[in-house]
Design brief:
By secondary structure, the chain is of the alpha+beta class. Helix content is 31%, strand content 23%. The protein contains 10 helices and 19 strands. Strands 9, 12, 15, 16, 17, 18 and 19 form a 7-stranded mixed sheet that branches. A 4-stranded antiparallel sheet has the order 1-8-6-3, with no helix packed on it. A 4-stranded antiparallel sheet has the order 5-4-2-7. Helix 4 runs parallel beside helix 5, helix 8 crosses helix 9 and helix 8 packs across helix 10. The protein is elongated, with a radius of gyration of 27 Å.
Amino acid sequence: MANEVKLPRLGQGMEAGTITKWLKAEGETVAKGEPLFEIDTDKVTQEVEADHAGVLLKIELTSGEAPVGQTIAWIGAAGEQVGAAGETASSAQVVDAGAPHSAEKPAEAHARDPERERGAAAAAASTAEETAGVTGSASNGGRLKASPLARRIARERGIDLQSLTGTGPDGRIVAGDVERGAVARSADETAPAPAPPPSGEIESVPLTTIRKTIARRLTAAWQAPVFQLTVSADMSRATELVAGARALNPDVRVTITDLLAKVCAQALMRHRDVNVRYSEDALLRFPTANIGIAVAAPQGLIVPVIRSVERLTLAEVSTTRDDIVGRARENKLKTLDLEDGTFTISNLGMFGIEQFVAVINPPQAAILAVGAAVETPVAREGEVVVRPMLTMTLTVDHRAVDGAAGADFLRTVKLLVEEPALAL
């Protein structure tokens, strides 16, 4: 009997997702654990693996948004038929042969099943949303069919949907059609350059899903009572250690951010009261330091997490950081990559920023803002010497961490940055 493929819940708080691409076509063989389709949530776009092996018999939802738990496809044995309502031929025969005679037909019983009614209503709403595009040709009934993702990409890139040819079901325009249209437009050297917008005209840029999520989370962060603590640290030995690590293992490019992640993890293990999350009923104290690294990705600010950093070597931290940052910039993170962070580091030193204040990443209780190391005259043993000084600012949620606890933690971070061997 065919198995349902339902829209999965990929993280806490997820209620719906948007299918952007099927990686298998109807009739193709699917192995359990093989990537089956791509889904766009309010956090990431990621591949979803098949829970069953067999043949992809029918795709109920080619693209578009659906609620968690809705049936979007069927996987079963080769040659097995699936009806419009998702009922396999073999199961229908069993019902007809074994059920007592009744005026009510099986199809009518399914139609009145509450779960199926809700699923059908959601599918109908999704279909209505997908077909409610811009005005098109008369052959399309006055409407140009386009998936929500295709419309979003077209808006962001200024692509006229009416200039594209849809390759989806019933001629619907999908994301790939918009991408190809953008490439074709760029390659057309004879096309006239677009006229600059009139002076003073306001451009409206639609909010992406990730931008809306960033706005919602930062608004929540702004409501928290926070305080900031700032120290400067001598980076002489830290710089030497990073250079030595690179020379020892040229295949692993260790960075200052990697060292800071390791240092902060060790400091969090010594100051467990900072390695917490705030909730209305309790403080959640974590047994490991899961360090989030703020990444400026093309789609917006992303904070992937390196787990249990206190247990990793510096080279392992570097390898993991390089992997998640790369996948963040390629929009290939999974929901798991963004969950369970206990502390965040935001480093803007590569932009020449010497000092700034970062906004906490709720429900975490603290974030460390790191600037550039600047050659600075400092007093050492009665003499003025020049040292690479790094300014670090800790922003703390006062509901979860007291001032003295935050100051003690930052003092330990400064000590370990200036004597990094103590953290390894």
